[in-house]
Amino acid sequence: MTSATTASGSRRLLVRLTPCLFCLSLLSAGCDLPGQPEEKHRPKFPDEVSNFQTLFNQNCRGCHGKDGKAGPAPLLNDDLFRAVIPEGELRAVITDGREGTSMPAFLKKKGVASQSGVQVLHGGSLTDAQIEILVYEIKGIPYKVVQEGHGELAKLRVSKDPGGQLAWGPTPQKPTDAPDYEVPEGETGDKARGAGLFKTACAGCHGSDGKGTRDKAGALNDLAFLTLTHHQTMRRLLITGRPDLEGRDPKIKMPSYKKHSKPLTSQDISDLLELMDSWKTNGSAKGK
User: Fold this and answer.
1) pLDDT (tens digit, 9 = 90+) per residue, 184-242?
2) Distance CA 181, CA 288 (A)
3) DSSP state letters, 136-150
4) Looking at per-residue confidence, does 25 or 210 come out higher?
5) pTM of the model as a whole
6) Domains in the chain, start-ordered, CATH in brackets?
7) CA distance 40 to 23
8) Adjacent-strand bridge partners of 143
9) What is the rounded end-to-end Cα distance, in angstroms, of the chain?
10) By Cβ atoms counted within 10 A, which residue in 14, 100, 181, 214 is the most buried?
11) Which residues pair with 157 in a beta bridge?
12) CB count, 10 Å around CB of 81?
């Protein structure tokens, strides 16, 4: 064999080995193969999304507004609301929605069919872990997220963690005189007491008969409004007011429970709601 033939064979071998040597050099340097994105640039499967702002923008912002501060639905990013709503109630509403309103169920699946073992779809777009992220952020509970696996096999684990960071910050402590967000067990409203309270706390803006006024506030004594507005929504608004209206027009306001001449109690709110229920049923109160 001539020296020229040997040299030619060596060159061919080197050409074949060059790509392998190049890949080995990349791997030894800790780099991904050419064409593969870095981890931070990899597209995420929907179940992998753990960023609160992303989850909020995709699922909540359309109704509750940017950063939860304005929109057709009640504010979420409000200190008083965040303080008074129980963690369990918030979780239940996000998970199951609120029947009779435009608040949908966000849980993707719920439970497992007892016989077939097939996951039962719940109609939503979020996993249990993603709902926990929304709950903890809105309630101001520091937390951490750990992801196990990637892609379709990814699973998020969310747990409370004092060192966790919150996009909306911590929630102030619930005021000691704040009415209960949910009706206390055994508490019933009284239409007559509600009518007296309405004259002093509400009629100035909503009119003596609740039909609204020209320049201050709309009608409450309206069948369409009462039918479309959930009872719990009304209770919540009587507690928190409408801080999103503040600063728009000094004549238009909806005060919180504590901004009346005398702060409203839980019983006061139940009485007002009983009055509104009587309007809905053409004057026949459900309670006393």
Assistant:
1) 999 999 999 999 999 999 999 999 999 998 888 889 999 999 988 899 999 999 999 99
2) 22
3) HHHHT--EEEEEES-
4) 210
5) 0.78
6) 46-160 (1.10.760.10), 191-280 (1.10.760.10)
7) 22
8) 160
9) 113
10) 181
11) 146
12) 23
